[in-house]
Design a protein that fits this description.
Layout (H helix, E strand, L loop, with lengths): L18 E4 L2 E4 L4 E2 L3 E6 L9 E7 L3 E6 L8 E7 L7 E12 L3 E7 L5 H7 L4
Antiparallel strand pairs: 1-2, 3-5, 4-7, 5-6, 6-9, 7-8, 8-9
Amino acid sequence: MSENPTSADGAQHPTSTDGVYVDGRRSRSALRLKARGRAEVRVGMTGFTPNIAKSLINVSLSGALIEVTEPVAEGRTVEVRLFGPEARAPVVRLAKVVRCDVGAKVTLGLKFENPVAGPELNRVTYAQ
């Protein structure tokens, strides 16, 4: 963390190796890919809470954007299960909620604890 850039709202935001601030919001550094398949999102680390996912929007090596049925506080840990259309075993990751947008839809910006790469990423995204 070397600099503290000023965002559009005048606030100071630290930079880091995993993202930068754009228009006052943190932006992922990894390329977002259009998702295929579906997701399950469960609040907490046990995977035993109700699934709140509605729609898988996009996925990257480091995270995902998912439409959900209810807001989740930023900083909370969730278990994410990503299912490709072939319905093989899901890609399972723990993730932190880094953004929760509430409007006509509720969406969560998630950062995976461990990256999703290679064959796992290909199972849940369209080729670019």
